[in-house]
Amino acid sequence: MHRKGSFVCIEGLDGCGKTTQAKLLAGRLEETYRAFYTAEPSDGKIGSFIRQYCLNAQRRLSSIVEALLFAADRFEHVENVVLPGINEGRLVISDRYVYSSLAYQGAAGLDLSWIEKINEHAIRPDLAVFIDVSPEAVVERLKHRRSVMENLETQRTVRQVYLSFVKEGGLVMIDGNASKQKVADDISRLVLEFLEKTC
Questions:
Q1: How many domains does the chain have?
Q2: What is the pLDDT at residue 53?
Q3: Once rounded to an integer, what is the mean pLDDT over residues 51-74?
Q4: Whole-angstrom distance, CA of residue 66 vs CA of residue 83
Q5: What CA–CA distances, in Å, run from 192 to 72, 158, 197?
């Protein structure tokens, strides 16, 4: 299948600012590249179920069930949102993608190769950006939330998984400790340089 557009995903720890940055990026590139924002969990039936049960501390399911649900939602997201956008020649910017499953379910103790296997039908992003913020900083930001991901050790483990993919070249790291404007400028510069090389 010929892919006319591009697919960028923004990754990071909970509270790192990735949602804000993904939306800012989509806004900046909307006119030039017909960019649009999307997110995982998606707005589909499976994504809605995930938000209701997997991201709620009182209703949390097992890590294996969560990983399978996220993979199913991702497949639906790709089929219904990502690929149509790419095939229309648009720039699709996703707030989280497969690296989130690898980082969070991997941190929960699941084998990374198994997570990769159940996500093998997910297309590879053209560019994956990791916004790096210290675990201590995000835990402080998340104090007011009732989140299952607030534990400092969990965040440290998740960050290490992300950093392993940065080292392997799958993710490009951006310093998320700077001001919101500086982070937005750095991400825009990175994405624009990539698009100019591939267009």
A1: 1
A2: 80
A3: 85
A4: 24
A5: 31, 28, 9
Question: Out of 20-24, 60-64, 129-133, 184-188, which region has the weakest mean confidence (pLDDT)?
Answer: 60-64
Nearest-5° Cα angle at 111, 107 to 114: 130
Q: Which of 53-57, 143-147, 163-167 has the lowest mean pLDDT?
A: 143-147
Q: List the beta bridge partners of residue 36.
A: 92
Whether 119 contacts 74, CB under 8 Å: yes
Q: How many CB atoms lie within 10 A of CB 62?
A: 11
- Rg for the chain (alpha carbons), in Å? 16
Q: What letter does residue 80 receive in the DSSP assignment?
A: I
Which residues, 6+ apart, have CB-to-CB distance to 102 below 8 Å?
112, 115, 116, 161, 165
Look at the alpha carbons of 57, 47, 156, 174 in this order and tell me if their dihedral is positive or negative.
Answer: negative
Domain-embedded: residue 117: yes
Range of the domain at 92: 6-198
> Is the CA virtual torsion 50, 147, 128, 182 positive or negative?
positive
**44 assigned to some structural domain:** yes
CATH number for 83? 3.40.50.300
CB 45: neighbour CB atoms within 10 A? 11
Task: Please indicate, yes or no, if residue 156 is contained in any of the structural domains.
Answer: yes
Structural element, H or E, at residue 175: strand 172-175
Asked if the structure places residue 1 within a domain, the reply is: no
pLDDT in tens, 161-176: 999 999 999 999 999 9
